[in-house]
Amino acid sequence: MPFHDITLNDGHKIPSIAFGTGSVNKGKDIHHYVEQAIDTGFDHLDTAQFYQNEASIATAIRESGLSRSQFFITSKYGFGNIRDALTASLRNLQLKYLDLYLIHTPTTITDIEGTWKEFEKIRGEGLAKSIGVSNFSVEDLQKVLKVARVKPAVNQIRLHPYNYSEHKELLRYHALHGIVTEAYGSLTPITTYPNGPVDAPLKKAAERLKVTPTQVVFLWVKAKGAVIVTTSSSKQHLEEYMAVGDLPPLTEEEVAAIDAAGADGPPSMVNTIRKLDLVRRTRILAMVLMGFVALRLLFSNCPMTAVE
């Protein structure tokens, strides 16, 4: 049961797992990592104007020997003149069109309605088959839909078990308007907040399925009907991710258990430090102490002004 395509509200289909070239790789030549992802089976490649590495994708596609039609390419507009940004992205990617073009974030857009109207023109001209948004709230989407002739096909958001409860209203809004959710940062419970409440239901499901907790997280994302956007420089990890497409789904009880544990929120920094081994705990506490000393020295050398 490989990863299936999801039909968008405009009739086009989107692969349900993507290799992201996110901000951690900003400005880097990562064509080797992209080639590795393609070799592993990723055909949905996600990039952005802000990442400054679109040319790496062009190199990887060219060296793969595969045709353009075998890929689904997403890029995102972040700043500046929209047409100039799109032209630059297409040039960097060496493409005539994008499969999906997103507004990267509403925080850099002064006129959401006007920007969306321009996106509709871009779609109408065939420069992007589908258009959508990223990091938009319900309020942001409402501004778009107020003027939209074409609804956003997707909203790409940070989604993981610890913020799922915060996003319930947004996800309901997506469902109401046929907007597909794309999820990035879904491994946060493992990479950022280990030893938290979600660990137990992840471990229990992993033991039942004889898989890894990482794979359980992605099964959880699939259960929410979202597109997985992930990345790694490790081929072993990429193979682990792609193998999720062949796994049976989580049970409703397992999904509910992960939801409930996530609603308790991530572990606090204090509790996380307590659960680390002695060496790692000592290093963190030493760094905190050094920071405190530096601040004391800084302020001891600065004249203070009285505040009334």
UniProtKB/TrEMBL annotation:
The record marks 76 as: Lowers pKa of active site Tyr. Keywords: NADP, Oxidoreductase. CDD domains: AKR_AKR3C2-3. Residues 18-261 form the NADP-dependent oxidoreductase domain. The keyword Lyase does not apply. InterPro entries: AKR, AKR3C2/3, Aldo/ket_reductase_CS, NAD(P)_OxRdtase_dom_sf, NADP_OxRdtase_dom. One of its GO terms (molecular function) is oxidoreductase activity, acting on the CH-OH group of donors, NAD or NADP as acceptor. Substrate binds at residue 104. Gene3D superfamilies: NADP-dependent oxidoreductase domain (3.20.20.100). The active site is at residue 51. Belongs to the aldo/keto reductase family. This is NADP-dependent oxidoreductase domain-containing protein. It comes from Panaeolus cyanescens.
